[in-house]
Amino acid sequence: MPAPTPPGPTRKSWPYVVVVILVLAFNAGWPAADVIKLATVILVLVALIVRAGPHDGT
């Protein structure tokens, strides 16, 4: 039976993903107002997901 991986700090790669999506939207010719709306929606979704995630009891 393989040993379980020890708990440790997890890497948060979502900021990089958000930046890549926004850069691709700019490069695709999206208007700045649409990119701002997209960024807002993505960040709200991330906040909701983080809030609904597992809690450590605090």
Question: Care to describe what's here?
Answer:
There is one protein chain. This protein has 58 residues and is mainly α. The protein contains 2 helices and no strands. Helix 1 runs antiparallel to helix 2. The two termini are 33 Å apart. The model has no long low-confidence stretch (mean pLDDT 85).
What's the quick description here?
With 58 residues, this protein is mainly alpha-helical.
Secondary-structure blueprint of this entry?
Elements: H1 14-27, H2 32-52
Helix pairs in contact: 1-2
Number of strands: 0
Mean pLDDT equals 85
Gyration radius over CA = 16 Å
Strand content: under 5%
Parts with pLDDT < 50 across at least 5 consecutive residues: none
* Count of helix runs: 2
Shape call: elongated
Share of helix, binned: 55-70%
Keywords summarizing the entry:
58 residues, mainly alpha, 2 helices
